[in-house]
Design goal:
Strand content: 25-35%
Shape: globular
Helix content: 10-25%
Distance between the termini: 28 Å
Bound molecules: zinc ion
Order of helices and strands: HHEEEEEEHEHE
CATH topology: Peptide Deformylase
Largest sheet: 8 strands, antiparallel
Number of helices: 4
Radius of gyration: 16 Å
CATH class: Alpha Beta
CATH architecture: Alpha-Beta Complex
Length: about 190
């Protein structure tokens, strides 16, 4: 299975994903599909289910660290109906996306986030996140609103996977400010040229 790309179906990816209502008989199967995708795509750090054709508020995160180290599968974060309660600080990094190859964009993201979500059983959780995982979370939560990294950037480049691997080494994740209030600007939907 491959991720849906903007070249194939931008309209689908631009829609807002739907809230998961418990009990949801398809959910466990869909989580397994996400995990399987994560297992078979090493380059994939995280994924929103809409990227593989399931427009639900469902996200999987495989890494928390800026060295892009993949966690053991039992530690992967599964976030259902995630909502940002607060966000602070600023970081920036070059982002890529399974759905938006070959684009990479320099994007500012929060450094700290408090997120409310439900786990696989539907139990509500509130968790504090800090560091690179906030970049990943913020990117994935944007997918649930049909927003891509290019929409949040005024520096977007195009490169292939090999070039991107080199680029990533030279352009690591960077903390700009840890203590400012972070506020997103509203996004004009529509792919920037
Ligand atoms: Zn993405």
């Amino acid at each position: 299975m491959e991720a849906i790309t903007i070249a194939e179906n931008e309209k689908f990816l631009r829609q807002k994903s739907k809230k998961v209502l418990f009990p949801d008989n398809d959910l466990q199967k869909e989580i397994e599909i996400l995990k399987e995708f994560g297992r078979t795509h090493e380059i994939c750090l995280a994924l929103a289910s809409i990227q593989i054709g399931i427009p639900k508020n469902l996200v999987i995160i495989k890494t928390k660290t800026s060295d892009l180290k993949i966690m053991a599968e039992k530690d992967w974060l599964i976030l259902i109906n995630p909502q940002i309660l607060s966000q602070k600080g600023k970081t920036s990094s070059w982002e890529a996306c399974m759905s938006c190859l070959p684009h990479v964009s320099l994007v500012e993201r929060p450094y700290q986030m408090d997120i409310k979500y439900q786990n696989e059983k539907g139990e509500e959780k509130i968790e504090h996140f800090e560091g690179f995982v906030c970049t990943v979370l913020s990117h994935e939560l944007d997918h649930l609103d049909g927003i891509f990294h290019m929409d949040r950037s005024n520096q977007t480049l195009q490169m292939n996977l090999e070039e991107r691997a080199l680029w990533r080494k030279e352009h690591p994740y960077k903390v700009i400010s840890k203590d400012c209030e972070f506020e997103y600007k509203p996004i004009e939907k529509g792919l920037q040229k």
